[in-house]
Amino acid sequence: MKLEILCYPDARLNKIAEPVLQVDERIAQLADDMLETMYDANGVGLAAIQVNVQERVIVVDVSQTRDEPLVLINPQIVEHSNTLILHEEGCLSVPDIYDDVERWDWVAVEALDKQGKSFRVEADGLLAVCLQHEIDHLDGHVFVEYLSTLKRNRIRTKLLKRAREQGKQ
Ligand code: ZN
Fold first, then answer.
1. Strand, coil or helix: what is 49?
2. Which residues pair with 56 in a beta bridge?
3. Residue 121 Cα to ligand 1 middle (Å)
4. H or E element: which one contains 160?
5. Residue-level pLDDT at 33
6. Would you please indicate which residues are annotated as catalytic (active-site) residues?
7. Where are the alpha helices (DSSP H) in 3-148?
8. What is the reported pTM?
9. Which of 30, 55, 106, 134 could share a disulfide with 45, CB 3.0–4.6 Å?
10. CA 74 vs CA 1, 8, 15, 70, 124: distances in Å
């Protein structure tokens, strides 16, 4: 089932997600719905917070072929490099806005899979950026917070105006 994606500056994007206590059928279904929503919107990642579920679940697929889904439940960055890279980011909650954000160029993330089994991903490049971006969402952070106040206010105004126009239609 496709889910509705919250749009910045919706205050619900700033909520902090709770850890998943039990990986059960409900969580597996949430992950499947999130993947469907992400693929439908042509995104490379989605956090549960973005579909108004305050639980620590993210889905990611950075493959060209769009057939390498990753589901991470209670993801945690356990190691990272000290090298920062500047990478252009976008977000399904901030449509049509892209800008450069500094991130670690390598991370190791531990999480549970849909069966509740723990696993570890080591990532660089786009996957590393994407994992940091999605885990940020679980802590109530949207990437535009890293941009200058001027840029952020412009984005805010633009998206609020667009939402108003869409509301009138
Ligand atoms: Zn995002």
1. helix
2. none
3. 19
4. helix 149-168
5. 98
6. 134
7. 25-40, 125-138
8. 0.96
9. 134
10. 22, 23, 16, 13, 20
**How far is Cα 151 from Cα 84, in angstroms, rounded to an integer?**
21
- What would the two tokens of residue 72 be? 């991470």
Q: Residue 168, SS3?
A: helix
What is the 95 CA–ligand 1 centroid distance (Å)?
10
Q: Would you say how long the chain is, in residues?
A: 169
Residue found under tokens 């469907």? 36
Alpha carbon distance 82, 77 (integer Å): 13
Structure confidence at residue 108 as a pLDDT band (50, 70, 90): very high
Q: How far is the CA of 147 from the centre of ligand 1 (A)?
A: 14
8 A C-beta contact, residue 34 and residue 69: no
Pairing of strands 70-80, 118-124: unpaired
